[in-house]
Amino acid sequence: MLHVRDLTAGHHPDSLVLRSVSFDLPTPGVYAIVGANGAGKTTLLHTLAGHLHPTSGQVVLDGQDITGIRPHRAARAGVALAPQGRRLWPSLTVLDHLTVTRPANSDGFSVDDLFDLFPPLAAERHHHGHQLSGGEQQMLTIARALRTNPQLLLADEPTEGLSPHIAGQVTAMLRDLPDRGVTVLVTLPHAHAATALADRVYVLAAGRLSDPLDPHDRQADVLLRDHLTLTPARPE
Questions:
Q1: Do residues 177 and 156 touch, judged by C-beta distance below 8 A?
Q2: Cα-flanking dihedrals φ and ψ of residue 27, to 5°?
Q3: Whole-angstrom Cα distance, residue 199 to residue 178?
Q4: How far apart are CA 153 and CA 43, in angstroms?
Q5: What is the DSSP string of 38-69?
Q6: What pLDDT score was predicted for residue 225?
Q7: Which CATH number applies to 2-228: 3.40.50.720, 3.40.50.300, 3.20.20.210, 3.90.1150.10?
Q8: Does the N terminus or the C terminus of the chain have fewer Cβ atoms within 10 A?
Q9: C-alpha neighbours within 13 Å on the C-beta side of residue 213
Q10: Who contacts 2 (Cβ-Cβ below 8 Å, separation ≥6)?
């Protein structure tokens, strides 16, 4: 469904973060990219979502070349980003966040669907962004992205700063999204969380991506730790 070939990108042409990254996400599923801080995880997701223009390479989503297109066009093509740090509007209510986000088409997630998917948000629908707990803010960040009815959800460290209980709720919800036709590409800092969530796991180190690893392999944790220690991270 997503084909990435030789993707090279960075914030400046003379300071590249991604170096010839290639991978395929063939069918709806959950795929994780693990890497240390500064490895290039956020740069990769922002490049796929159109927030950064690649220096070279190609990105094809469901047969459509979306290389280097603007963020609003990437959203219309079926890409949604749930960014690290959440980036909610503090003065808008939960309901406001979900009603001002325009769906790319009439199918997919309605506001009521999202409240069913995230019951805590339904109870807080009239609360403003700054009044929500960290877990509720993260749920709203993902719900806002899903409101655009994406084929591909890019979730940048969605469990960051959450308690184990709330993190478990968020990952369980992500795990269920392929059944609704959404492919999930999630970045995580630790191998254990990735192997518990994903169908395939990649390691990003120094701007280069490993071959996919099977999290059900009994040696997956060992292999992931080995990959993570191969090369140091670069600044993002």
A1: no
A2: -140, 165
A3: 11
A4: 15
A5: TSSHHHHHHHHTTSS--SEEEEEETTEE-TT-
A6: 64
A7: 3.40.50.300
A8: N
A9: 28
A10: 24, 25, 48, 59, 60, 61, 62, 152, 183, 185
Model confidence at 222, in pLDDT bands (50, 70, 90)? Answer: low
Rounded CA-CA distance 81/45 in Å is 8
Closest CA to 143 of 110, 167, 106, 187: 110
The DSSP-derived string for 140-205 is: HHHHHHHTT--SEEEEESTTTT--HHHHHHHHHHHHHGGGGT-EEEEEES-HHHHHHH-SEEEEEE
What is the DSSP-derived secondary structure letter of residue 88?
-
pLDDT at res. 21: 96
pLDDT at position 148 over 90: yes
Residue identified by tokens 């460290």 is 157
Dihedral sign (CA 116, 118, 122, 128): negative
Cα 21 from Cα 83, distance rounded (Å):
21
